[in-house]
Amino acid sequence: MKNALLIAAACLLALLSTVGASLPYPILPPLFASGAESGLNQFLGLPPKLLFSVAVMINPLGLLIGSTVLGALSDRYGRRPVLLATGIGAAAGHALTAGAMLLESYPLFLAARFATGLLEGNGAVARAMLAERLQGTLRNRAIGWLNGAFHFGWLAGPLLGGLTVGYGLTVPFWIAAVALLAVALVVMAVLPREAPSTLTTSWWQVARDRHSLNLLRHAELRTLFKIQLAVTCGVTAFYEFYPLWLVEVGRYDAQGIAAVNVGLCGLMTLSALFSGRPSATPPLKRAAWHAFGVACAVGLVGLGSLWVGMAGIVLFGIPNAFYNATVQNWAADRFGGHGQGAVMGLLSTTFCLANILMALAGAVLTLLDTRLVLLLGAALSAAAGWHLWAWRLRLPAAPPMILNKAPE
After folding, report:
1. 331-341: b or e for each residue (b if 16 or more CB lie within 10 Å)?
2. In whole angstroms, what is the distance from residue 131 CA to residue 126 CA?
């Protein structure tokens, strides 16, 4: 019962955090690409597509910083207080986003999305909590279920945005704010209090000295980072630009994008529920095949007609769900001695960095053709699959040296 409540609380938080991050996906493309002028898409006379790319990038930039430091901070201060603080803060960020849209203030919108992303980088904390408190098959399944909650958030967020935006552009953000506050109360009630840390280092010292990127001093983790970055560049190119592709190729509005997203995230969530099952196939071999699957799905969107591309959008959910579960469980087993918060933070940080890189690439490539950024993402994921296949053959069986403990 205790473990069930722990898993449920982590999944609820993951769901609501992802809902908040994904809410704007069906809302922003029509806002910036439909031709209707507003204060949000006419800032400084810049091209609306460029403003759209920056708006898409700014939340992952916050996620990048949050994912880098929040996991390490939770290693120092405990999972419960960090999850509570970030949940309440993210709710405030959604309220500020709503205010920026009412004022049609593009700079305030960017600031609000950045702050929200910073605090929603707590997914690494939730993963670390499960990896730390659970063992064996239950941990593998719990991380799979947690990934399912994240994936379902990508369904629920755009769906919520598409269904409620008709009542006003700010309504989805107010709903997200209230829901996050409710989940913070659940976390407060369910997660046990932790013993105070005996370390005397300040939070700034912990963030500076124990952030996830410090793990890159280790050769194996550098290799994992490079491969993970390439795979997630394909994933984030897909997430960021398939809604714009639907607007341009199929003339879809927010409701239409949300409907397509239901198929994608529904299949991805279903896949995640089974992705934590034991397998006789070595994990890196499985991860390589899943990376190839991601590349194929994204390539279908970049090269196909409307209906072929839509098939790629929906099928993308299968390899993406299995890849995430495979790599996260393998990383928890192999590198857990470095601190689960830092390890899961590195994986989350890599995803956020990929978001930023592909948003920057898209800011240029979409001015030529939106399909170019999708094809670039597919090529990077395919290259990562090839490197995973080769890496598994030369990776030593012994685990790497454990990182020194946090400074006293």
Report:
1. bbebbbebbbb
2. 9
Entry pTM? 0.64
Give the Cα separation of 227 and 284 in Å (integer).
Answer: 11
3-state secondary structure of 52: helix
Report whether 155 contacts 148 (CB < 8 A).
no
Cα(171)–Cα(193) distance, rounded to whole angstroms?
35
Q: Which of 71, 118, 148, 62 is nearest to 359 (CA)?
A: 62
Please tell me whether residue 372 adopts helix, strand or coil conformation: helix
Would you tell me how many other CB atoms lie within 10 Å of the CB of residue 87? 25
Where does the pLDDT of residue 283 fall: very low under 50, low under 70, confident under 90, or very high at 90 and above? confident
Match 């008709």 to its residue by tokens: 166
Q: Does residue 264 come out as left (phi exceeding 0), alpha (psi in the -120 to 50 range) or beta?
A: alpha
Tens of pLDDT, residues 385-398: 999 988 877 776 54
- 262: which 2 tokens? 């239901």
Residue partners of 372: CB distance under 8 A and separation at least 6: 302, 365, 366
193: exposed, middle or buried (Cβ count in 10 Å: 0-12, 13-18, 19+): exposed
151 has pLDDT over 90: no
Q: Give the helix ranges, DSSP H, for 165-218.
A: 171-190, 203-209
Q: Mind listing the pLDDT tens digit for each residue in 23-49?
A: 777 777 777 765 666 667 777 777 777
Question: Tokens 């598409």 label which residue?
Answer: 162
**Residue range 80-118, pLDDT digits in tens:** 788 888 888 888 998 998 888 888 888 898 999 899 888
CB 158 within 8 A of CB 257: yes
pLDDT, tens digit, 9 for 90 and up, residues 134-148: 776 777 778 777 777
Average pLDDT over residues 57-71: 77
CA dist 245 and 25 (Å) reads 12
